[in-house]
Amino acid sequence: MTATALLWRPMAPADLPGVMSVAAEVHPGFPEDEAVFAERLVLSPAGCLSLVDADSGLAGYVVSHPWPLLQAPALNSLLGAIPPDADAYYIHDLALLPRAQGSGAASRVVALLEEEARRAALRRMALIAVNRSAGFWQRHGFRLTHDASLDRKLASYDDDARYMTREL
Questions:
Q1: Residue 143: CB partners within 8 Å, gap ≥ 6?
Q2: N or C: which end of the chain has fewer CB within 10 A?
Q3: Which pTM was predicted?
Q4: Measured between alpha carbons, how far is 54 from 58 in angstroms, rounded to an integer?
Q5: Can you say whether the dihedral through the CA atoms of 28, 34, 37, 41 is positive or negative?
């Protein structure tokens, strides 16, 4: 699949069944209810994007939102609201189906999320890297960030989970 065939666009509520399908395939060890994705879409619509192509439909998605640095929402949990002290732009989930991997779509969305973080006047981005993705994130300027307060949260993912941050 060529990079030009894939387009990031705002996620719509109608995308949620497809998002759930992609999530089940890409992150089977980290299941989340559709309500989690629906709430993120309501709380931070600019941070929720769908990757689509004309032929096959949804090929991936990203969910992100402002959040306090050195904190991470628990898996499969509702936020209720974006905290007023949110000082970082948190990438909750980036998932691409195999047909979209290697297309450049992931790098393009990281740039889009950086623009959104800057629009929100946030100076840092943060995420938890899973599935041995730390190398990808390091190539995009993220650094491993250790804080003992996150150890329990990271253990709820897997042994490879790493909290990472990027200064803007």
A1: 164, 165, 166
A2: C
A3: 0.93
A4: 9
A5: positive
